[in-house]
Amino acid sequence: MDDSLSFESFLAAARTAAQKAMDDHARGEYDEFALHGGVAFEKLAKAVLVSKNPAYLVEMRNGNSDMLLYLCGDVDLDAKKVRTVGASEAIARLRRMKVLPQDEQLDQLIALRNGTAHTTVGDEAKALLPTLAENVETLLKHIGQPMDAFWGRWTSAVNVAVDKERDEIQREVEIKIKQARHLFDDRFKGLPDGAKDGVLGVPPAENGRFWVGDMTVLNGDDVLLVMSQVKCPACTATAMMTLVPTDRMVPRPNFVPEGFICHLCGLNLQGREEMAACGELASVGRKLVSIPPLAEAYARRSAVRLGETRTG
After folding, report:
1. H or E segment to which residue 221 belongs
2. At 243, phi and psi to the nearest 5?
3. Which of 212, 226, 236, 267 has the fewest Cβ atoms nearer than 10 Å?
4. Is the pLDDT of residue 1 over 90?
């Protein structure tokens, strides 16, 4: 039998495609994520089938037994005539064997993979990362293969994706942080040692990007918005966090983190739920807003006051 149909070959191909899928997801290229994710799972499913019996790869069509005899090692077959079962049938066979559970989301991923060449799947595929991770974990456990060897540098992100003890927002935020960290590291591949540290050492105002620094936005004596410099949880660069009052009608309202952006690695968190899910930034926010009154704490920094604009 051709080496390309061996367990080792299918597993290696699945590993390569799975890590490409994670790279795609991190870059926001969800069409490509669906393509590589679907390929990865198909290859892994075939690896499991081969580990049980190479004959399980046979595509049952037209009653031709040549492929069956070839997979069993009893006849030779031209490489151009070698055909194996498709992704959907491979999954169906594993379900009949009770190796895989029924999962409509996995079926959707395979359907998107099959349609990626001529349609845009957009955010529909974005939400399927946990589905891919969970089903891959099931198959890897079945064949006794370690997660870290399969996922490589994406192992921790995948572990977060399948962690049921975290809520959906917490998982999304942790994955965002890990994705931003890996993409930032990718920019320095092949560069001299110290290149990344050199970039991180450049003050934000001097790295060629728009930067406002620490700032308090006031309306009279009321603080409407605070922008503060904080360390990015992904790349450790100096980034910006926004805090807003919980209630502008009270004299000294509490302030909560509302958003975060790092112009260096691209990490962007929006809304109070995502900010609360990032423990590192949430704790920084609590330290900042514990200094009363907030406007006085930032009086020595940049302040913008809202006034009245008149014509003429």
Report:
1. none
2. -120, 145
3. 212
4. no
